[in-house]
Write a structure and sequence with these properties.
This protein has 165 residues and is mainly beta. The chain is built from two helices and twelve strands.
């Protein structure tokens, strides 16, 4: 999985006449869009020449060698902006990047395999793991740290499953 590209933003459109792009951020680290950083767009690597925020999660980016509105318009809306996985910043112990939890096996604390995480849904209170069970159904498990144990080295998430009444 090393050297895979990780999405940090998405193209929302073109801005102005000088080849700038509107970008919606998908990262908690807005400094990834700072001048001098490198990003990948449509398989091409670009140097960020300038960046400015226009809202909480939106930026205007000027990328090297994109110098006109016509050039910027060739970049399709919803194109992902990515960085190599090796460029990710280390997280504090007990924290994980979302992509690391997709396809992780979910077991009960008594070692019964429940299924595999297929998606993480953001809610107001806490995230919810969507777990594909072997019978084709899905189970929703809230990400409550006291009830979840994650070991990335073994790719196993453990949780206590309540029995149906």
């Amino acid at each position: 999985m090393k050297n895979s590209l990780i999405s940090i933003g998405i193209v929302a459109g073109v801005f102005g006449l000088k080849g700038e792009l509107k970008i919606d951020s998908l990262t908690d680290y807005p400094e990834r869009f700072n001048k001098g950083e490198f990003v990948t767009l449509g398989g091409e690597r670009y140097l960020v020449e300038s960046s400015r925020p226009t809202g909480t999660d939106r930026f205007i980016l000027k990328l090297e060698n994109i110098n006109s509105r016509a050039q910027a318009a060739k970049i399709v809306k919803d194109t992902l902006i990515e960085i190599p996985q090796d460029d990710l910043r280390p997280l504090p112990k007990g924290s994980y990047y979302r992509f690391e939890l997709i396809d992780i096996d979910v077991l009960s604390y008594d070692d019964v395999k429940i299924g595999t995480v297929t998606e993480i849904v953001e809610t107001g209170a806490n995230d919810v793991f969507v777990v594909a069970k072997h019978d084709g159904t899905e189970l929703l498990i809230p990400n409550i740290p006291a009830d979840i144990e994650i070991d990335l080295s073994t790719r196993i998430m453990r949780t206590q499953i309540l029995k149906e009444i």
